[in-house]
Amino acid sequence: MYRLKTTAAFDSAHFLAGYCGKCANLHGHHWVIEVEAGQDTLQEAGEKRGMVIDFGDLKKTVRALADSCDHALIYETGSLKETTLAALRDEQFRLIEVPYRPTAENFARAFYETLKAEGLPVLRVTVYETPDNCASYEV
User: Which of 25, 54, 81, 127 could form a disulfide with 107 if both were Cys (CB 3.0 to 4.6 A apart)?
Assistant: First the structure.
């Protein structure tokens, strides 16, 4: 098995609705997405001969994913009152609504599925919410 790994980072805020602890409060992280891609064989022909995938293509796609989340409030559907959302929108804050609780575990799975859908040979996605704490998803 050949494996490649790349990372990209973004800064965003979140909170965990219904959680009993400090993460119930709005707070931010410097999230790091680590993507491991691979396959059993290398490409046999063309300009990408001898590669699993071009590192440039892998990095570009992972960077775009991270950029799509950068400097935003990521929140779970139904976790904020409509009046709160209206006020945040009126202030022109960048908001990203997701259909899951915005945890490192759920981000890892969502990012994995997004990258797989784009045709990348993804093996595992790990999301760090701090330098010492991360969650991984693989099939």
Answer: 127
